[in-house]
């Protein structure tokens, strides 16, 4: 069902590789088609650590969510959710805060078709799915289902994991503008969690990965560490600040050594609105 309660006609565009399905393939999931596997194969040829990087990104999401739930966050907004992959964010949050409310958002219809797995939350809590495009952030924040689930006058833990590098620039830094819009709409005490691919360590490989996405019609806009850091301007970092995803508060000290910066290829940070 869409946000109006109607069942939409879904065109999955199986002829074209999609970022959500490529990512699912890299994670060892089952929701991908020939075009996605072909694109993922090219990505792996250019950047053999792509599968490990995807897993590192997922593990970071779980650690950051645990930390925020322990810190008292009970409302979560996850944009660019992807195809459900256990543990999903609500499972992590509700294990610690059973009453946590979680809204998931993605613009890929394949995620909508799998959203049921995201809606099986704890009875004390609540989860909802909103199909929306983050480049129109007002369509996310104003979605009736979001407003029925989250109280935007109270702190919200916003996550944009492995999403912003798929937002093209159009002459201006669109991703940055989207983040600023979302930051402005959230109440003090809200948090922002972002992971973002970078070419800082492997420029040639990332250029080839970008070419694969370009062929699929998906922009791939990488950020340097300085550009990534700017996304958090005005907010206070929680934990170590900007680092590679696997080095953000590792569960065991040895986990920070499980990959090189070039293999992780993704910056991560969490910050709070003063
Ligand atoms: C690589 S997946 C990341 C999934 C999950 N956040 C994670 O980190 O494990 C990127 C997701 O962003 C979604 N996405 C890309 N562009 C988007 C947009 N403009 N609005 C909303 N979602 C978008 C894709 O459909 C895909 O599901």
UniProtKB/TrEMBL annotation:
One annotated GO molecular function: methyltransferase activity
Keyword ATP-binding: no
InterPro entries: SAM-dependent_MTases_sf, SAM_dep_MeTrfase_SAV2177_type
Keyword Methyltransferase: yes
GO terms for biological process, alphabetical: methylation
UniProt keywords, alphabetically: Methyltransferase, Transferase
Protein name: SAM-dependent methyltransferase
């Amino acid at each position: 069902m869409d946000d109006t309660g109607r069942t939409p006609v879904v065109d999955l565009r199986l002829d074209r590789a999609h970022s959500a399905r490529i990512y699912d393939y890299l994670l060892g999931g089952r929701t991908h088609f020939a075009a996605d596997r072909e694109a993922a194969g090219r990505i792996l040829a250019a950047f053999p650590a792509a599968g490990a990087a995807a897993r590192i990104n997922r593990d970071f999401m779980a650690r950051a969510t645990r930390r925020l739930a322990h810190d008292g966050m009970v409302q979560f907004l996850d944009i660019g959710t992807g195809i459900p992959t256990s543990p999903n964010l609500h499972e992590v949050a509700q294990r610690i805060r059973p009453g946590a409310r979680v809204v998931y958002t993605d613009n890929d219809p394949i995620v909508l078709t799998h959203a049921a797995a995201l809606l099986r939350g704890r009875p004390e809590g609540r989860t909802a799915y909103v199909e929306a495009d983050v480049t129109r952030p007002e369509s996310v924040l104003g979605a009736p289902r979001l407003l029925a689930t989250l109280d935007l006058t109270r702190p919200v833990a916003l996550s944009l994991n492995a999403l912003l590098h798929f937002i093209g620039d159009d002459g201006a830094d669109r991703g940055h503008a989207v983040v600023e819009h979302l930051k402005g709409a959230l109440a003090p005490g809200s948090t922002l969690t972002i992971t973002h691919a970078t070419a800082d360590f492997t420029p040639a490989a990332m250029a080839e990965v970008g070419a694969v996405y370009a062929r699929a019609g998906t922009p791939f806009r990488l950020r340097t560490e300085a550009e990534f850091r700017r996304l958090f301007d005005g907010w206070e970092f929680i934990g170590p600040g900007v680092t590679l995803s696997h080095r953000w508060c590792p569960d065991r000290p040895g986990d920070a050594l499980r990959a090189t910066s070039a293999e992780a290829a993704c910056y991560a940070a969490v910050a709070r609105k003063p």
